[in-house]
Amino acid sequence: MNDKNGSIEIIVGPMFAGKSEEILRRIRRLKYAKKKYLVFKPKIDNRYEENKIVSHIKNEADAISIKQANEILKFLNDDIDAVIIDEVQFFDENIIEICENLANDGKRVIVSGLDMDFRGEAFKITSILLCKAEVITKLTAICLKCGNPATRSQRIINGQIAKYSDPIICVGASEKYEPRCRKCHIIIR
Ligand SMILES: [Zn+2]
Q1: Active-site residue flag, 97
Q2: Residue 61: is it exposed, middle or buried by C-beta count within 10 angstroms (0-12/13-18/19+)?
Q3: What number is the average pLDDT over the span 80-101?
Q4: What's the distance, CA 184 to chain centroid?
Q5: How far away, in angstroms, is 13 Cα from ligand 1 center?
Q6: What are the extents of the domains in the chain?
Q7: What pTM did the predictor assign?
Q8: β-pairing, 37-42 with 82-85?
Q9: What distance in angstroms lies between residue 22's CA and the mean position of ligand 1's atoms?
Q10: Mean pLDDT, to the nearest integer, of 68-74?
């Protein structure tokens, strides 16, 4: 029996919105409160460090890097108060049920991820978790074109705006992303 009140908190937004910074802030508070927690991230995200969450301003926390969502279950035990999952959109869809079960089991679940891809389309995992979450934090970046709040990530390949049909991974191309508002975000079909 578990008498603790579980919940799902989700942090979403485009790239450069400070999602990692916000998740790190919540991790620091769990640490101060002497809570027991586990931090997970998908193995594909090698942005800075394999076994850490690192924000763009270089704050960091240790994280367990996993390939499959159900690997989370191996690390769990009854003492764990909170489970934190970064870049949740990159996991397989089992992650949704795992988050639900953890929250039902009295754990505080904190997930963070992109709500939209570079085309402005919803990521399925984040959109379902947005429905199921008790607490939603939607962050914005600053649009690089006009300075208004940015909700989207513009993808640029070899200096050109990426097309809607461009593959998600372009081998050998120089690629970057820019935060853009709805008005400045361009979709070329
Ligand atoms: Zn703009």
Answers
A1: no
A2: buried
A3: 97
A4: 23
A5: 15
A6: 7-139, 141-189
A7: 0.91
A8: parallel
A9: 23
A10: 97
pLDDT tens digits for 98-133?
999 999 999 999 999 999 999 999 999 999 999 999
Give the distance (Å) from ligand 1 centre to CA of residue 149: 7
CA distance 104 to 188: 43
Ligand 1 centroid, distance to 182 Cα (angstroms): 7
Min mean pLDDT across 9-18, 64-73, 172-181 is at 172-181
Say how far apart CA 178 and CA 144 lie, in whole Å. Answer: 7
Active site residue: 50, 60, 71, 87, which one? 87
Q: What is the CATH number of domain 141-189?
A: 3.30.60.20
Q: Output the CA 126–ligand 1 centroid distance in Å.
A: 24
What is the CATH code of the structural domain delimited by 7-139? 3.40.50.300
